[in-house]
Specification:
Largest sheet: none
Order of helices and strands: HHHHHHH
Distance between the termini: 34 Å
Number of domains: 1
Helix content: over 70%
Low-confidence stretches: 1-34, 37-53
Oligomer: single chain
Structural class: mainly alpha
Mean pLDDT: 77
Number of helices: 7
Strand content: under 5%
Length: 184
């Protein structure tokens, strides 16, 4: 991170960090994690955000566990949790709409790729639609970050930057291993 400012809300990082913790180095695991990592990176980790804005997660559910893990890792106070929940709750409908658009655009891209009459042009058009929605999501992330960052302490923002760096390092490692295994 060259700017020293983490570029994402703290909820993305735990997904990738958890994947990094279970990596055992086997080829099967590498391929599985590569696919999982690619999917997570493509969604930008945003699939968890709308659900984190609500309290309807069943105790022990993955959503509740993720929320608890994030709060624990960042040592969030009850006041910080409430403030972050309010920010995310206020953006839930916008995020849900954008995630729906992203899902639809990705389905259309997949259809374009698999079409019997697929052309480079048709795939590029469908891919551009995905990119446009991802750009809108990035802007939404920036807005949310701008509202959440002041709630966090300098140490918590540093921890997020560290989480993100570990996620980047993990992704770099997976990509490097894929390149090494391409001849297998």
């Amino acid at each position: 991170m060259t700017s020293g400012r983490p570029g994402a809300v703290p909820f993305f990082v735990c997904n990738i960090s958890a994947a990094a913790c279970v990596f055992d180095g086997s080829m099967k695991t590498t391929k599985w994690l590569s696919i999982t990592l690619a999917a997570a990176l493509n969604l930008g980790g945003w699939t968890t955000i709308p659900s984190l804005a609500t309290d309807n997660a069943a105790p022990g559910s993955a959503r509740a566990q993720l929320r608890a893990r994030i709060a624990e890792k960042l040592n969030l106070t009850d006041d910080q949790k409430a403030q972050i929940k309010a920010v995310l709750g206020g953006e839930k409908s916008a995020l849900t709409a954008l995630l729906g658009q992203l899902h639809d655009a990705r389905k259309a891209l997949r259809t374009a790729i698999h079409a019997n009459d697929a052309t480079e042009a048709s795939v590029r058009v469908a891919s551009a639609r995905v990119a446009a929605v991802e750009a809108n999501l990035a802007v939404e992330r920036m807005k949310i970050y701008g509202r959440i960052a002041p709630i966090l302490t300098d140490e918590q923002r540093r921890q997020i930057a560290d989480f993100e760096q570990r996620a980047d390092n993990f992704a770099d490692g997976v990509i490097a291993r894929l390149g090494e295994q391409s001849g297998d």
